[in-house]
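TICKET: design request
STATUS: open
ATTACHED STRUCTURE:
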């Protein structure tokens, strides 16, 4: 126990330096005193302890007792460290993705702005825009030419830092992420206008990581190669605004019927608001939603300092915009007609074009008004749902065209594409063919029951008037007389003359053609009447006057300024005299024009399915049609009724302010016109605008003739030209001294001994 009281001493190991004979120099040995025994007892001392392990444990314990703040700092240090590590690896990953997806794109040296789809600007004679056609639906405008409100509104609502960012907007992207996370849904996008342009021009609309990476790369490229104004202009001229409108010009004309040059503050706000959801926010589909979005755009513009509080208040107080579900206005029938004809004139459209047409927009609006007024007033009562009108000048230039009641409801062009029976409106070609055969307006035919084979034509009123002149027969639209004439002249001769004058549709050369049973379009029928107006020259209907590129290169220019003669002057003068009587005393009385010589012919088809009136003055030839698309019968609507009234309304408006000029021949029937009395006659005006502009108040001067006024036949109750016996000759059954003009070529009336007559085509056909 005494050993416990002694102080412990450190015992260092000793090395035996004694050398024996067999010892090596590098050996060392521990003595017995250098060993520590398990019991702590021994001859050389007590228990041994190693102090170093105790010292190390003491230090660790000290660190644990004083290491509270040091542990948190370490944790933060480790967190920063691993964030840096992860950031580096994320950067490497992003760089890898950029390199990978970038490598899948074409070489940057080959990148180029894709051509904007070509636009066709269709213009009226005064240069005003009728419509734009093409994939975009509007021409490209510079920032300087469009309304300044448009770019301001788009920047305010879509990309406020557009002029300061470098293609992508980190602040805007971060704001969008936070907003979407806090709301729990996608309410805000982070794409800049540059990114949207890159996507629209180069990429698809699919939402993939690859597309997003490529969008960013393309945005950087756009910012490097183009100015901010150029990028903004490209964006505004290409972006989709809904309702098939691409670009601000197309959208402005689509929704507001005006150019983007003239857009107001409120309208600009509506356009900018569409970009978020073009189809859903379209004012044509949901005007309330479009209005609500526009209010947000106006507020954004005020916050950005683009507009004042007063301007915003004024804009908000304006009446909401209501757009139709489709383009409206009869001029769009013209635009469609132009686009149908354009490939045949110049081939495929590969660049922006300007098409100058023959349309007078003033007349176009008057024509549309006349058709709409007639249908609004009497359409429901008379069971009429559709109408069409075409007005043509002496050269065949179409000055106005209405293809239907409302283009927004139906885009089918009834004036150009619908083939209908013209009815009695075809009779002028029958009478013209008869005049060419030498028959005169005063020639006599008998209005009585007629049988041609198994066909027995009847007059509209089912009455017969006995012996009448051809002039009276045409004025009163007697079917029996027309049937006799077509068989006397020959159906083939009638069809040849009709084709020569401008009818292009196939015509059936049979007896019933006298009553207009072969189908034609309103446009070709109206054009075929124009030779009566211009002195006998063909008037090929056309609406395209010139086609040029945006740079001014002429690709096409029409050549209708030197038309061929299709009718002799005496035939024209006599037809004018007879067709004038249709309006003054016949079936077309409702078409009379105050102060103007006018001529024309009505037409009504079986069961009142179609009703037409085609007439003309020295300035304009106009055809009007009414009916139903499904062919249902109207309530006894004849060509001399509703069509004649609409014709009168339009022609009165079209001739307002013009100096009246007589028709060719001055309305007097003649047997022949000496060549010396015709001024180099009847050359059609070299300039298309000469007639309708009234630059020459009398482009087709009256022919001086010596005919006397019409006199009344004794007891006949009808007018005949002077020089024809006042008392109609008696029928002779002998053969000598019989005027062949008095002998009908078919079985007329019946009973009695038939009068001798010459052999006709009918005789040949029937084997007589």
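STATUS: resolved
RESOLUTION: sequence designed for all positions
ATTACHED SEQUENCE:
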């Amino acid at each position: 126990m005494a050993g416990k009281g002694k102080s412990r001493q450190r015992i260092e190991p000793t090395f035996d330096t004694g050398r024996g004979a067999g010892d090596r120099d590098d050996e060392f040995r521990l003595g017995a005193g250098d060993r520590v025994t398990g019991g702590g007892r021994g001859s050389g001392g007590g228990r041994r302890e190693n102090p170093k392990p105790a010292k190390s444990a003491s230090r660790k314990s000290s660190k644990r007792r004083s290491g509270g703040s040091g542990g948190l700092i370490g944790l933060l240090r480790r967190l920063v460290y691993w964030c840096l590590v992860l950031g580096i690896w994320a950067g490497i990953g992003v760089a890898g993705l950029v390199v990978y997806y970038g490598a899948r794109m074409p070489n940057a040296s080959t990148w180029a702005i894709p051509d904007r789809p070509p636009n066709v600007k269709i213009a009226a004679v005064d240069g005003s825009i009728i419509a734009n056609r093409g994939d975009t639906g509007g021409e490209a405008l510079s920032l300087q030419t469009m309304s300044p409100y448009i770019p301001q509104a788009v920047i305010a609502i879509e990309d406020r830092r557009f002029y300061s960012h470098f293609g992508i907007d980190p602040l805007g992207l971060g704001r969008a992420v936070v907003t979407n996370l806090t709301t729990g849904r996608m309410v805000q996008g982070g794409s800049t206008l540059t990114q949207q342009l890159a996507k629209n021009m180069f990429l698809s609309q699919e939402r993939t990581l690859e597309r997003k990476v490529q969008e960013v790369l393309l945005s950087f490229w756009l910012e490097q190669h183009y100015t901010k104004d150029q990028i903004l202009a490209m964006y505004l001229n290409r972006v989709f605004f809904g309702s098939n409108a691409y670009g601000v010009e197309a959208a402005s004309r689509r929704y507001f019927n005006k150019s983007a040059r003239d857009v107001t503050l409120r309208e600009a706000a509506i356009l900018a608001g569409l970009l978020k959801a073009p189809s859903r926010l379209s004012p044509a589909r949901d005007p309330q939603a479009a209005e609500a979005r526009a209010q947000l755009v106006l507020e954004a513009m005020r916050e950005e300092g683009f507009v004042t509080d007063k301007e915003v208040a004024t804009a908000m107080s304006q009446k909401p915009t209501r757009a139709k579900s489709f383009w409206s206005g009869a001029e769009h029938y013209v635009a469609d007609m132009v686009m149908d004809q354009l490939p045949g004139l110049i081939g495929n459209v590969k660049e922006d074009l300007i098409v100058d047409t023959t349309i007078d927009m003033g007349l176009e609006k008057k024509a549309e008004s006349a058709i709409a007024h007639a249908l609004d007033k009497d359409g429901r009562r008379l069971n009429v749902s559709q109408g069409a009108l075409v007005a043509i000048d002496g050269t065949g230039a179409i000055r106005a065209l209405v293809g239907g009641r409302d283009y927004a409801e139906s885009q089918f062009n009834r004036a150009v594409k619908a083939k209908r029976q013209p009815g009695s409106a075809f009779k002028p070609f029958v009478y013209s063919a008869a005049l060419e055969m030498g028959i005169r307006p005063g020639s006599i035919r008998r209005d009585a029951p007629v049988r041609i084979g198994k066909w027995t034509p009847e007059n509209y009123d089912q009455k017969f008037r006995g012996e009448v002149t051809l002039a009276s027969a045409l004025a009163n639209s007697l079917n029996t007389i027309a049937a006799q004439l077509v068989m006397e002249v020959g159906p083939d001769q009638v069809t040849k003359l009709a084709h020569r004058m401008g009818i292009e549709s196939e015509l059936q050369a049979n007896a019933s053609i006298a009553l207009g049973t072969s189908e034609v379009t309103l446009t070709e029928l109206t054009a075929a009447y124009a030779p009566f107006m211009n002195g006998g020259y063909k008037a090929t209907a056309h609406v395209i006057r010139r086609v040029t590129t945006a740079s001014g290169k002429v690709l096409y220019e029409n050549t209708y300024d030197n038309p061929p003669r299709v009718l002799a002057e005496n035939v024209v003068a006599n037809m004018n005299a007879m067709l004038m009587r249709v309006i003054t005393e016949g079936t077309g009385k409702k078409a009379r024009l105050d102060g103007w010589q006018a001529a024309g012919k009505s037409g009504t088809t079986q069961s009142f399915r179609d009703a037409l009136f085609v007439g003309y003055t020295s300035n304009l030839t106009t055809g009007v049609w009414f009916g139903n698309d499904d062919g249902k019968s109207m309530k006894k609507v004849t060509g001399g009724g509703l069509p004649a009234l609409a014709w009168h309304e339009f022609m009165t408006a079209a001739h307002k302010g013009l100096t009246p000029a007589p028709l060719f021949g001055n309305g007097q029937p003649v047997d022949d016109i000496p060549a010396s009395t015709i001024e180099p006659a009847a050359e059609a005006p070299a300039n298309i605008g000469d007639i309708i502009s009234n630059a020459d108040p009398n482009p087709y001067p009256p022919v001086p003739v010596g005919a006397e006024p019409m006199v009344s036949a004794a007891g006949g109750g009808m007018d005949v030209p002077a020089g024809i016996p006042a008392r109609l000759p008696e029928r002779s059954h002998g053969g000598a001294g019989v005027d062949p003009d008095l002998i009908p070529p078919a079985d007329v009336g019946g009973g009695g001994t038939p009068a001798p007559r010459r052999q006709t085509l009918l005789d040949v056909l029937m084997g007589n």
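CLOSING REMARK: The CA atoms of residues 187 and 716 lie 88 Å apart. Residues 1-8, 14-68, 673-768 have pLDDT under 50 and may be disordered.
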